[in-house]
Amino acid sequence: MKYHQKPNIYANQIELKVEDLQRSLDFYQRIIGLKVIDKTDQRAVLSADGIQPLVTIEQPQDIQRKEPRRTGLYHYAILLPSRADLASMIRHFIKTGYPLQGASDHDVSEALYLSDPDGNGIEIYSDRPSSAWEWRGNEIVMGTNALDVQSIMEEWDGKPWAGLPQGTIMGHIHLHVNSIEKAKKFYCEGLGFEVVTSYGKQALFISTGKYHHHIGLNIWNGTNASPPSDNSVGMSSFTLVLPSEEFLQRTINQLERIGSSIISEDGALAVLDPSGSKIKLIVE
Predict the structure, then answer these.
(1) What residue segments make up the domains of the chain, in order of their start?
(2) Residues 14/239, Cβ–Cβ less than 8 Å
(3) Where do runs of H (alpha helix) occur along 97-189?
(4) Which of 90, 93, 142, 275 has its CA at a distance of 20 to 30 angstroms from the CA of residue 123?
(5) pLDDT by residue (tens digit) across 107-123?
(6) Count of alpha carbons within 13 Å of 118, Cβ hemisphere only?
(7) d(Cα 199, Cα 206) in Å, to the nearest integer?
(8) At CA 244, angle to CA 253 and CA 251, rounded to 5?
(9) What tens digit of pLDDT does each residue of 27-76 get?
């Protein structure tokens, strides 16, 4: 997981608003395999390893169902340590009968797609070795091909599924935005990401350290899409980890230079992207 440590910038957790906390808890524990590390009547913090928060779910009192065709979360992506772990996850989904929305071979990775009970998108994937990734200059080759499930299942280690394995992390965040150009300026000039590939003018993939992508951006909900209401189901925020306090200060200066305002909440720093998604900035 060298792409999710210093000196890279990467997402390590996400906060979601849900309509029914208990329903979501059942899903995230029984279907996804996360562990509860903290819980109140309205909020639960979930982890793969029992230590590091990965997904936080909260049920606000005035919550409303997810609004269609808004900016915000397209999906968050859980990165498994190995292809064998992906095989175990496939067996688990077959056993539970939980419906998947897709499965793809992206050349650099192999992925499963589904949604939680509120329609928050989730990708669960494993990476191919970076030595097998194809680069054309500074652009990485990523496709969308049929997943070879039989080949993956041949790597199953025979162990029964017991939740997400140790070493599972947040792989990337993929967002609906309302302008690719504004998003590119914010994430690249402001936060310091680099473009690694694009799908025409519809989607952009960015990273640090030559990962295939730490963040995906698309306009598939329309260039006139507006942010969701504060009380809508969906993403509250996601957290980006920066490599040092010096880097954080430099990032703040870059963000302010392009017109973004830094928000201080309970001692933590955050910023809104041009489409209204909140990003918390931390140093670990």
Answers:
(1) 2-75+129-140+154-283
(2) yes
(3) 149-153, 180-184
(4) 275
(5) 999 999 999 999 999 99
(6) 28
(7) 12
(8) 15
(9) 999 999 999 999 999 999 999 999 999 999 999 999 999 999 999 999 99
- Whole-number pLDDT of residue 164: 97
Q: For the chain, give the number of residues.
A: 284
Residue 134 has pLDDT above 90, yes or no: yes
- Please confirm whether the linkage preceding 117 is cis (ω < 30° from 0): no
DSSP state, residue 131:
G
Burial of residue 81 (CB within 10 Å: 0-12, 13-18, 19+) is middle
Amino acid at 246: E
DSSP state of 130: G
CA distance 90 to 86: 6
pLDDT above 90 covers a percentage of the chain that reads 96
Report the candidate in 244, 237, 250, 242 with the shortest Cα–Cα distance to residue 280. Answer: 237
3 state SS of 218: strand
Q: How many CB atoms lie within 10 A of CB 213?
A: 25
Kind of pairing between the strands at 121-127 and 72-79: parallel
Are the beta carbons of 270 and 284 closer than 8 angstroms?
no
CATH number of 2-75+129-140+154-283: 3.10.180.10
**pTM score above 0.90:** yes
Question: What's the pLDDT at 266?
Answer: 79
Question: Residue 156 corresponds to which tokens in the numbers above?
Answer: 């199953």
Structure tokens at 207: 């990273």
